[in-house]
Amino acid sequence: MDAQPKLYILDPFIYYALYFYLNNVPDPFEEAKKLMSNEEFKGLLVESVVASYLLLAQQLFEHVPHIEYSKVFMYGLRESSEIDFVLCINKAGETNKFLIELKYRRQVPRISTTTQERYLIVLTQKELEVDMNRRVVYIPTSIFLMLF
User: What strands lie across the sheet with 129-131, from one edge to the other?
Assistant: First the structure.
């Protein structure tokens, strides 16, 4: 499976404000409300916010002596599908990889990890659940963004 690199807008709010301004959108507020009613667009917007957040967190953690927040990959591959983010944190000489998948929708499909993966974090709209059998943690995106 060949995954195409994703393009993230680090500040989607400023991007759309400028887009509406430069394209002379007569009522930017109404246009923004229309965009936000589209579930697919909302998922892409949240994915850009999470990408921006992870990059910012990487810069902040550079100054924490006992944690080496070494890498944030914006996409990766699992055995059968892509993953949105791979977060690598070195602590006590051991590299821990956190696979993060964004499923910002009302109904979140159940996901299983492979034998090579320790755990998978699935960011959701509202669902909070730990599935130890599948080694998957479902956590609302808003809570995930408050963790660091």
Answer: 67-73, 85-91, 94-102, 120-124, 136-140, 129-131
56 contacts: CB under 8 Å, gap ≥ 6: none
Handedness of CA 69, 102, 1, 136 (dihedral sign): positive
Beta bridge partners of 130: 137
pLDDT per residue as tens digits for the range 50-91:
988 888 877 776 666 555 555 666 665 555 567 888 877 777
Q: Which two tokens stand for residue 71?
A: 């890498």
Does 19 map to a domain? yes
CA geometry: angle 79, 84, 89, nearest 5 deg = 90
Hey, what are 44's tokens?
Answer: 């892409």
* Residue 5, in any domain of the structure: no
The beta-strand segments (E) located in 16-93 are: 67-73, 76-77, 82-83, 85-91
Residue 92, in any domain of the structure: yes
Domain count, the chain: 1
71 found inside a domain: yes
CA-nearest of 98, 80, 81 to 89 is 98
- The domain of 104 spans 12-146
